[in-house]
Amino acid sequence: MTTMMEEYDSSLALAASGSLRAFNDAGVLHAADVHVASRLTAMLGETDESVALACALVVRAARSGSVCLDLTAVRDEAGDDGAGLPWPDQDGWLAALNASPLLGPPHPLRLEDTRLYLDRYWQEEKQVERDLRARAGQPPPVIADEAALHAALHRLFPDASYDEQRAAADTAVRQWTTVLSGGPGTGKTTTVAGLLALLAEQAEKAGDRRLRVALAAPTGKAAARLEQAVRHEMMSDRFSPQDTSRLGGFNARTLHMLLGRRPDSSTRFRHNRDNRLPHDVVVVDETSMVSLTMMARLLEAVRPQTRLILVGDPYQLASVEAGAVLADLVDGLVAGGHVNAAELRTSHRFGSEIGVLASAVRENRPADVLTLLRDGGERVHFVEEDDPRETLRAALLPGVLAIREAAEAGDADHALAALENHRLLCAHRDGPWGVERWNRTVERWITEETDDPLWDTWYVGRPVLVTANDYGLGIYNGDVGVTVRRSDGTLRVHINSSRGRLDFSPARLGNVQTLHAMTIHKAQGSQATEVTVLMPGEESRLLTRELFYTAITRAEDRVRIVGSEDAVRVALGRQALRATGLRQRLTGEDTELRGLT
Ligand SMILES: Nc1ncnc2c1ncn2[C@@H]1O[C@H](COP(=O)(O)OP(=O)(O)OP(=O)(O)O)[C@@H](O)[C@H]1O
Q1: What is the per-residue pLDDT for 98?
Q2: 185 assigned binding-site residue
Q3: Ligand 1 neighbour 186 (Cβ under 6 A)
Q4: Each residue of 446-482: b (16+ CB within 10 Å) or e?
Q5: Among 242, 529, 544, 552, which residue's Cβ finds the most Cβ atoms within 10 Å?
Q6: What is the dihedral of CA 171, 175, 179, 180, to 10 degrees?
Q7: Which residues form the RecBCD enzyme subunit RecD N-terminal domain (predicted)?
Q8: Distance from C-alpha of 417 to C-alpha of 421, rounded to nearest angstrom
Q9: What is the ipTM, given to two decimal places?
Q10: 124-171: per-residue pLDDT in tens?
Q11: Opening angle at CA 412, ends 409 and 417, nearest 5
């Protein structure tokens, strides 16, 4: 019998019956999955329950970031929730699907081996494969002057510490598509800057016009970091004045801006196969955050003879939307023989603890991780207390008050600089270890310390995170800012955007959140000097190795992990699995569930 609670539980599909009902009751399927499956099967006259189940499961898979449903793995992947449910037998399931009208026109579903796709993702994955194969199949770029290239490689990447980067740049010059992969501080940006100088010189030697370069990243914050880092590199004495003048000016933009946003669509852009981007080189940073859909749009917009440099760390969390594109490309393009690898392994930033810790996490070495957390030296701290609030208050409040003090004095520069010193990262938005709770906790600390009750949403020193692109205002998802008092007493919010420093009246800002704490997902693409990571409880489904790795690697200098040994062990033992077919398409291998290691 349906209880009162169930009637109000939006995850339950009360009209469902049979398998769909059983899977929904067990929590494997959400009501939305069941509704899509019920409507599609009804529309196309499909009565087989196992097909309806597969359809609901493929919708569920897409919701959690998979591009397809691997019919051979879904039962294991459902874990305890799936135990005792009426799973169809494998062969019968495949036969029912193959005979189903859902695989016929208008093809809402596509089946490939044992991978079941929603049509949109199938189309996008095939297009990405086709475009990448076509790019790799062309004759390689012509090197105008090998001797000059050799000399420039040794000038821009001078000594043995640059060996990996020199080799990566040499590889990238000689192919149309390069995936430049490496962990934090391995010198990816340094390599990009040197590579651009090499390409600009080669363009000059070939008598071509000035190289047209596009720098892009999935978020405004990541784009701004890329531009700043490349400019910083170009100031180094490895760059000659000619290198700098050959490259001229460039700005980094979000991928959406590069491709040209269209008011009528969020997934189609002004630049596409019929209106390609004009650039000779397109560099995309933080490619791990790029979804399959965005990669499809990017690949159709770049000219075949544009060098495409995809930069990123394949061990980080994948995109919020479906796909694990960077990890698939790192494996698929190289293993498939389409391109040569350009991988950087040596960290130059943290000579020490954080880089070593990140490697131990990536390689799933729990004993080493725990030893490093407990005896990691000055840069790594492990807070294992049951109630860490007092420890955190003592550690974090001085930084929070420094932002407030600068903001109260109207000093936006210092307030923003102080904001970059520290990030408090949570896995979840809600719950005891979530962003909401910790934002309120920090606000309570401020009140206790200053007697300011912080009645208003907008208060002096309120740090904010922009949560949606606002093209009118020129601020983008991921930009951060601080609320500062002006001399006339009014408040202005100063935001570090990829267009530079902007300030607004608080009333103009809609999509912002308080930034005393933020989610690890939202922190992708940014870093802070010091990072505190609040590990969720062991029961959290978000707790994965990739989440932990991404959180740690947001720290430039110091990291503090707050949680239990059990939570650390659970995180290491669990990978964020996404079913995709891109790697197999590029290598010609069989289906498998995609892990990111
Ligand atoms: N070969 C090298 N020898 C010494 N220092 C280097 C070398 N390459 C880069 N660095 C320095 O190491 C730091 C990290 O380099 P870079 O920013 O290029 O790495 P990255 O992989 O882009 O980092 P992240 O992804 O974390 O932003 C920089 O301060 C850079 O100047």
Answers
A1: 95
A2: yes
A3: yes
A4: beeeeeeebeeeebbbbbbbbbebbeebbbbbbbbbb
A5: 552
A6: 30
A7: 26-117
A8: 7
A9: 0.98
A10: 999 999 999 999 999 999 999 999 999 999 999 999 999 999 999 999
A11: 115
Minimum CA distance residue for ligand 1 atom 28: 349
Domain limits of the chain? Answer: 18-118, 138-349, 352-573
Q: Which residue has the tokens 């109207």?
A: 410
Calculate mean pLDDT across residues 288-309: 96
pLDDT at 256 over 50: yes
Q: How far apart are alpha carbons 386 and 548 in whole angstroms?
A: 20
**From the alpha carbon of 225, which atom of ligand 1 is closest?**
27
Ligand 1 pocket mutation, candidates 156, 230, 349, criterion most atoms within 8 A of CB? 349
* 260 annotated as belonging to a binding site for a ligand: no
Q: Which atom of ligand 1 is nearest to the CA of 159?
A: 1
Q: Is 182 annotated as a binding residue?
A: yes
Give the pairing of strands 213-217 and 281-284. Answer: parallel
Determine the pLDDT at residue 291: 94
Intrachain domains 18-118 and 352-573 with the same fold: no
Q: How far apart are CA 313 and CA 252, in angstroms?
A: 19
Is 323 part of any known ligand binding site? no
pLDDT in tens, 52-91: 999 999 999 999 899 999 999 888 888 788 888 999 999 9
- CATH code of the domain made up of 138-349: 3.40.50.300
Q: Quick check: 263 pLDDT over 60?
A: yes
**Ligand 1 pocket member 238 (CB < 6 A):** no
- Atom 8 of ligand 1, residue of closest alpha carbon: 187
Cis ω on the peptide bond leading into residue 106 (within 30° of 0)? yes
Q: Identify the CATH class of 18-118.
A: mainly alpha
Taking the centre of ligand 1 as the mean of its atom positions, its distance from the CA of residue 192, in whole angstroms, is 11
pLDDT of 231 strictly over 70: yes
CATH class of 352-573: alpha beta
The reply to whether 337 sits in an annotated binding site is: no
